[in-house]
């Protein structure tokens, strides 16, 4: 048995070593990425859910981090955000992301909003309230135009601290949305305990609309639940006109997804943000 397990180890070891080495190298590269100007933001439109794309009015954009690695090319945030999280780099990177997003949004026509993702480490270990406050002052962005997206993972760690932080952030006038709702533990008590302004229904439920009746039932229930708690509801990952029509019919407030637009450098949305000169 000993030999067998040894054999198993030698089979998988090289690959695992490679993965660990990859992560280590990526971590080193990431630590200089900001300074080297390799990070940028893509912006994906968020719309008020109309019954068709033409009827869906753009209300803002979600900022999504992009890393152009000098050798590897584009590295997915699904890969580099966790590395930044574990190594603590996320605090500096998150600060850069928030500042860039707010600076950009400050130049958009007034009602347009910007949504920025806050990661757990950034939320629980940095001075997130002080940071948001100073960046709003620095960029001149009206607090009401900034929305912070957090996942429930942030709050599971420390309920009391999470609640205190959310209250202080809301006191600044920014809005808070619960990202990826339904993908984790999503206990209903969280919705009652934390002052969210918005729920983002996880893409998985939207993808499955029309494929299984359970997803439709869940989406419908989340919309009702959120509205009952005076929160607004946005669906992510909306890719088809059928999904959009269903969501509009069920009274979902917002939609985001490839149907409305992919995440792109903001210049590509110059028409939408009324800055024709960028196009
Ligand atoms: P997320 O916050 O749930 O962001 C939505 C992701 O879904 C984005 O992936 C977006 O490109 C993708 N998406 C949007 N619409 C559609 C669609 O219709 N179909 C499909 N298949 N996908 C769609 P992306 O940009 O690769 O980001 C992945 C994740 O990385 C994000 O998930 C978020 O958790 C994290 N992330 C990205 N940027 C940041 C950031 O600036 N800060 C932090 N803390 N996390 C970030
Ligand atoms: Ca998000
Ligand atoms: Ca999400
Ligand atoms: Ca997601």
Automatic annotation (TrEMBL):
It comes from Bradyrhizobium ottawaense. This is Diguanylate cyclase (GGDEF)-like protein/PAS domain S-box-containing protein. It comes from the Bacteria. Residues 23-277 form the EAL domain.
């Amino acid at each position: 048995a000993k030999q067998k397990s040894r054999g198993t180890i030698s089979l998988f070891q090289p690959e695992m070593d490679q993965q660990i080495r990859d992560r280590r190298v990526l971590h080193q590269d990431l630590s200089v990425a900001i300074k080297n100007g390799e990070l940028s933001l893509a912006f994906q439109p968020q719309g008020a859910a109309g019954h068709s794309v033409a009827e869906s009015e753009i209300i803002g954009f979600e900022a999504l981090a992009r890393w152009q690695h000098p050798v590897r090319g584009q590295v997915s945030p699904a890969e580099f955000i966790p590395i930044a999280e574990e190594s603590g780099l996320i605090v500096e990177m998150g600060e850069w992301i928030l500042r860039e997003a707010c600076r950009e949004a400050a130049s958009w026509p007034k009602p347009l909003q910007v949504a920025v993702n806050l990661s757990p480490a950034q939320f629980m270990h940095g001075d997130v309230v002080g940071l948001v406050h100073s960046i709003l002052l620095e960029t001149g962005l009206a607090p009401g135009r900034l929305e912070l997206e957090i996942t429930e993972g942030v709050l599971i760690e420390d309920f009391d601290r999470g609640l205190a932080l959310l209250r202080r952030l809301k006191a600044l006038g920014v809005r808070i949305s619960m990202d990826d709702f339904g993908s984790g533990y999503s206990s209903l008590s969280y919705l009652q305990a934390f002052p969210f302004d918005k729920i983002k229904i996880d893409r998985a439920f939207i993808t499955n609309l029309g494929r299984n009746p359970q997803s439709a039932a869940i989406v419908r229930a989340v919309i009702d639940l959120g509205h009952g708690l005076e929160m607004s509801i946005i669906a992510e990952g909306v890719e088809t006109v059928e999904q959009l029509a269903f969501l509009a019919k069920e009274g979902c407030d917002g939609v985001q997804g490839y149907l409305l637009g992919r995440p792109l450098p903001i210049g590509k949305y110059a028409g939408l943000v009324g800055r024709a000169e960028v196009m």
